[in-house]
Amino acid sequence: MLGAAFLMATSAIGPGFLTQTTVFTQNLAASFGFVILISIILDIFAQTNVWRIIAVSEKRGQEIANMVFPGLGYVLAILIVIGGLAFNIGNIAGAGLGLNAITGISPTAGAAISAVIAVLIFVVKEAGKAMDRFTQIAGFVMIGLMLYVAATTSPPVGEAVVKTFAPDKIDIIAIVTLVGGTVGGYITFAGGHRLLDAGVKGIDSLPQVTKSSVTGILITSVMRIALFLAVLGVVSKGLQIDPANPPASVFQLAAGNVGYKIFGIVMWSAAITSVVGAAYTSVSFIQTFSEKLNKNSNWIIIGFIIISTLSFVLIGKPVKVLLLVGAINGLILPIALGTLLVAAYKKSIVGEYKHPLWLTISGVLVVIVMALMGGYTLIDQLPQLFK
């Protein structure tokens, strides 16, 4: 249960998570607390719905989608695999930057070393257990270091609490970005699919499934809040954050050279666990399409990681591709969650299970909000691809 929660949480906490949180805090100051609060509520609604329906149906997201509308599962799988691959290039790059900050080696060499470590997790016989243990250890290390850095900046906690409930400004784009980054794309299914693989399924497992889904969001939220307070402490003192690398700048301003090394550890931990989570979940979306794919899933995951690494080493981060995939990623959550909500009312999929009305209503709310804002983002990003 804890393994699934940490897989979901550490998949969400990647290089983009660190940068987004830093930049939004810089722009909104203490009022960013409100954005975090709303995103936590929407995240819990989304994850609880998805995990419960997966557990009750005892099927993966793509299988459920194909039962709701033939062919939809294949479309969903393609979107998630393409998105996972593109974002994994960014995750590998982040891992390289993390090792660069810790040891001084080049980001390319750091990326290659990180890829080897990620691959080794899936080479061992008990890959699932190895992945669970790795993400838990990395998760605890990240949170511990982040809380330390937050404490060193002496943030105005009282002001942050007040503005969380009475913000000076409400930024809708920031809310959508946070929700999409925490439970969008492949992350929506990371924990739910891990529980299926571990044999945690059926109506009897729902209390544990619900607890695990909420735990995953809360782990992510602790990290988000700690980083928010660290940045707020730096900003409130009038210190200037370097726009070239906002998260690294915050850590350095907070604790000098030691802070920069801590940034390296946090960045590497965040990136490498996201590499593992993206590869595992993306492949879990195609392995059910044939017995051969299912039997060789670990080798396909390894291939996924190698392709991501080679793409970064040979091409770098393709900015335009990441922009488009980021926009598409915002639409995966409403498509996936909407499909699963329909499935929750089909006896052929969930049997006699009765989905709670409050979860349906909250799920529909998330679908509508994310569909509107995801569509807006996609329209906004498309022109940039043709410049």
List the helices and strands and how they pair.
Elements: H1 2-12, H2 15-28, H3 32-57, H4 61-68, H5 72-103, H6 107-123, H7 127-152, H8 157-165, H9 172-183, H10 187-197, H11 206-236, H12 246-284, H13 291-295, H14 297-315, H15 319-343, H16 347-350, H17 357-385
Q: How would you concisely characterize the structure shown here?
A:
With 387 residues, this protein is mainly alpha-helical. The chain has helices spanning 2-12, 15-28, 32-57, 61-68, 72-103, 107-123, 127-152, 157-165, 172-183, 187-197, 206-236, 246-284, 291-295, 297-315, 319-343, 347-350, 357-385. The chain has a domain at 2-41 and 75-186 and 193-199 and 206-316.
Could you please describe the fold and organization of this structure?
This protein is mainly α and 387 residues long. The chain has a domain at 2-41 and 75-186 and 193-199 and 206-316. Helix content is 82%, strand content 0%. The chain is built from 17 helices and no strands. It has helices spanning 2-12, 15-28, 32-57, 61-68, 72-103, 107-123, 127-152, 157-165, 172-183, 187-197, 206-236, 246-284, 291-295, 297-315, 319-343, 347-350, 357-385. Helix 1 runs antiparallel to helix 10 (187-197), helix 3 (32-57) packs across helix 8 (157-165) and helix 7 packs parallel to helix 11. The longest helix has 39 residues, at 246-284. The N and C termini lie far apart (46 Å). The mean pLDDT is 85. One of its GO terms (biological process) is iron ion transmembrane transport. One of its GO terms (cellular component) is plasma membrane.
